[in-house]
Each structure stands twice: as structure tokens, then as C-alpha cells.
Amino acid sequence: MDKQIVFVLLFISTFFSAQKPVQIAFLSDVHFQDLYGSFSDHDFKGILNPKTGKYTILRTMDSQLHSTRIFNENYFAFLKALDDIAAKGIKIVAMPGDFSDDGQAYNLRGLHRILEQYHQKYGINFYLTTGNHDPVGPFRNDGGKDDFLGQNGNPLGVYSKESIGKSTDKIITKDIAESGYFEILNELKDFGFYPKKEDLFWSTPFDHDTFKNYTYKKGLEAAEYSKRLYEVENGFSVPDLSYVVEPVKDVWVIAIDGNTYIPKNINENSHSPSNYKGASIGYNNVLTNKQHLIEWIRRLSGEAKKNNKTLIAFTHYPMIDFNDGATNEIKNLLGEKKWQLERVPQEEVAKVFAETGLQIHFAGHMHINDTGIRKFGENILVNVQVPSLAAYLPAYKILTIQSPDKLEVQTEVLNEVPRFNELFPLYEKEYKALQHDITKILWNKDILKTKSYHDFMLFHLKELVRLRMIPDDWPKDFIEKAGKLNGEDLLLLIQNNNQLKEKRIRSETFTKWSFDDLLLDLYKFQSAGELAKRDIPKERLKQYQILEKLYQENQSQNVFVRQLKSIFKILTLLSNGDPADHFEIDLTEQEIRKR
Asked: Which residue(s) pair with 385 in the sheet?
């Protein structure tokens, strides 16, 4: 008898030790636009690419270099990421919103086709949640873009009706309208928004049955659009597509619909698509207008704890300040409405959700690589910011659940992407056409010489800073003055030659970089966190540390010097945040450790 017990225990031990840890890949802000899609009511299939012989529906390079995301090459990056995930044998992919480029019907169809292909071929199950670009508003709305690329190299307008848009050269198709929740749910129901037969549990905030009573039939009933409405304001009912799913035994994944579409005018029609504000502010509005989510997560946390389930949440919006303690310094330097500061969640957001019992949360929205941690008494909340495939630094995250209390997060950077330069001949045509437009600031054609996706995205950031960030966020007189300086000039502003000699600092070694380099490096750290160090010379990083120390010690009241002092402080904070590359989350010890 004793031998039998030993044998059984040994078998159980061997069985569990052989089980692979659960892995979930997080792909955020894909902003999918179907380059090779088609319109259901128009025969336009784009413009002919002489390199491939294929017709392509794409946006102009000029438009994507003025945007915080690219519109075209991310198509190839998405396929590369999915191929990577398939090769790693990962079977669960969570997508924290902005999976489409404004939820247009032709993009949703293209996304559906690709997700279905990878599900059928590799057995990958996809779980989506919505972002502020899908949907743009709660209900379908006419729309379009002025900046598709036309056959002659000039911009082409594509609109859902004749009366909108400013372009005279245009295509009219209903498939460019911004879909609402109803259309998105119908097109993408197979990817988390409805239960799958193999899911062990699936529920919504409006389903109050316990998981022990769950059946697939009940899940299907709860998933219906009409049962997923709530009042965001009195008399204004809008959808909420949040759900919780158990894709594998003992792991609950909460897909939070963090979109809060608040009416602009309570005296207007509640079904008017134009009567709703955008959702980009995120969780700050959840606290005031979507409190049922908080109670739902509190209930799920209690159920998960009682039934030994590991709880992982993801949504589009961050729950924790993502500026590594630099937010107040940025406000003081640039003002409260610059640097996307309106998207920073209030500290109360982290506190409220930590107190629900939620501990692990993945988010997107900001197109940045960052980790934040907050502790409130015995409660801990870790917010992992998933980068975008459509911005610098293009990457996705892999979560490995080693045990309920120990989780590992790995950042997978996409340096090489096949076909990333496939559209370059079309941009050549655009550039030639743009040269005749004296009203436009030309984009730098050298981006078409880049040899890797990493370099392409870094060039995108550089042009974005030049063409948009500097003009929009920074005082013009400051940029004009600082832009003439190099590293040595910045050093000599606060130290004379004798002081430098005493400190054994050779000022001439600081001449290799300019203020423009410094500003670009600031945005690299904001976007990539610690991974930005790979794209900055080591010598320059050491010199930044020297300058930050010297500027912090300087007590000058000169406005310009104080502004520079603030920049170096922001740079230091952004470059020294919590681990955001490869790290372990230890919930027992309530800490994050670099791997």
C-alpha cells in the first residue's frame, strides 16, 4: 500500500513538473490597416506598386511622419509578431485595444481574416479589448481620411459620404466609416468578445451568476449586444464589451473595456454619434462614469482568491502614471496640456483598483515601454505598458505565469521585419509630388534608406519630434536658443574651465552631440524606457549623468538655465524607471526584479 502511495505521489509530481507554465503574449496598438484589402461597394483597390505588381491601399508618408503611429509598415510588423508568437508555441494572445485604425469595416474584415488564419494554422486563441480607435465613438459614424496616397503621388481622400472631407480627388465607400460597438462585436465576436466552446469560463460585468454555474449556453446569452449596455449618464445607454475568460485551467483573464464615452450635451439625442466625447483620457473617466467596472473587478478578485485562480487584467488604458515620476517636472517645464499629460491617470485610479484586489494589469494606448508599481497597505498593483508595433520601440510582451505569486515578463523587440520596405517605391513617387508643394515642410527622404524595421521606426521618431513634437510642445524661443548649442556649450553654461579642470572633465569630449540629439534621446527614453540605452552612445549617457549632476547643483535663477536643469532631471527620471525589459514580479515580496 505504501509503495502504491509513493508511486501515485511520484506520478503526480512528475506530471505537474512536466506542465509548461502558462504564457500569454500581449500585442497592443497594432492599428491594423489592411494594405491589401478591398471595399465592398467600390472597385478601388489602391495604387499599383511597381516593386511587387500589387495594388495597395496606403496612407502617405507625410501623414505617418506627423502621427504618433505609422499607418502602413505596421501591417508587416503585425505578421512578423504573430509568426514569432507561433514559433514560440504561445497559444494565448491578448490585444489591449487599438487593434484597428479607427474601426473601419474593411480593416476589421482584414484583421478578422488574419486572426482566423493564425487560429486555424497554429491553434492561437485571440482575446481582444477595445481602445479609443476601435470604436472612435459608441455608435457608427461617417468618416474618412484625406491622406491616402493617390496614383499620381498626391493625397487621395477616401470618405463614407460625399459631403465630408476636404480633398477634391476622392473615393466614396461606406467601408471607411468608423464602426461602432455593434459592428465591431459582430465582426470580431470570435476573438474574446463571445465565449468559445473550449473556454472553461466566460462572463461579463452584467452577468451576476457565479462561475460554478457557468455553461457555454449561458455565456452566449450573456454576450448578446442588448445585454451589455449601461447608463453612462442618465438616459444615455452605451455598450461595455468587458469580459472575463478562463482560457486555461486556473487562469482568469479580464479584458476591461476602458472606453468611457460621455455625452457632450444631455439635451441632445442619446443615439447621435457626434454627441459623445472621445475616450482617450482613459481611467480618470471610469472612476466617475463607469463605476460598475470597479465593483465587477472587486467581485472577480474575491471569486478568484476563493477558487485559487490567477487573475490577469488587460485594457487599453494605463492604471499608473507612466512618466517614472517626471510628470510634475514636465508640467512645470511645458505646461499641463503638453506631452499628452491629459492621459496620465490620477493616482486615485491605482489606489481604487489595487483595493479591488487586482494585482497585475497590462495596458497600451501610450505606445511606450514602461512598468509602474504602486503599494497601498497590503495591496499591490503592477501596471505593464505594452509598446506599439506602430511606433518606436516596436515590441510586444510575453507574460509567463511561473506560479500564482511569481510571474515573468519579457519584452520582444521587432528589429527585423520582412517586407518592411515594400512600399518605398510608392513613397518615392509621393516625395516627387511634394517637392512641387511650397506650402509643405518636406519629410526627410533618408528614411527610405533605412535597412531594418528598428531603424525605420527610430527614423520615424526623429521626424515626429522635428515635425510635430517640437512645434506643438516646446516654447519657440527656448528651442531657437537651445538648438544652437552642443554638449560642450551646455557644460560651459554652468561651469568655467577652472572648475572643469578641478573635476577632471574634458569639455571638448562633449562636442560630439547637439541639443537636438539630447531632445531626441529624451523622447527615446519616454518611448522605450531602459531599452532606449541600446540606441544612445555609452559615452553620451555618461556625459548626461555628469550634466544632470552639475545642473542639479547649480543654483542659478536664470530662466534658460533652469529650463535646461529641468530637462536633465526629466531625462534622468525617464531613464531610471522600474525594470521594463525582462523582469520578474514577486507578489509575495511585493517587488519587481530585473532578470
From this structure: 363, 370
How much is the pLDDT for 211?
82
Interatomic CA distance for residues 248 and 132, integer angstroms: 29
Q: Which long-range contacts (CB under 8 A, 24 or more apart) does 66-70 make?
A: 66/464, 66/467, 66/468, 67/464, 67/468, 68/367, 68/391, 68/464, 69/29, 69/31, 69/367, 69/388, 69/390, 69/391, 70/31, 70/390, 70/391, 70/457, 70/460
Hey, what's the cell of 158? 477616401
H or E element that contains 64: helix 61-64
Q: Cα separation of 343 and 299, whole Å?
A: 27
pLDDT at residue 19, as a whole number: 64
Sheet with 155-159, strands from edge to edge, namely: 144-149, 155-159, 170-172
Whole-number pLDDT of residue 166 = 86
pLDDT of residue 439: 77
Burial annotation 315-339 (CB, 10 A radius, 16+ → b, else e):
bbbbbbbbbbebbebbbebbeeebb
Q: Is residue 146 helix, strand or coil?
A: strand
DSSP3 helix / strand / coil % (the chain, rounded to 5): 40, 20, 40
The amino acid occupying position 466 is: R
Q: What are phi and psi of 33, to 5 degrees?
A: -125, 125
Q: Tens digit of pLDDT for each residue in 367-388? A: 999 999 999 999 999 999 999 9
- For the chain, list residues with pLDDT below 50: 1, 6, 8-18
Residue 247 grid cell: 482560457
Alpha carbon 145 to its chain centroid, in Å, reads 22
Distances 434 to 48, 73, 149 between C-alpha atoms, Å = 19, 21, 12
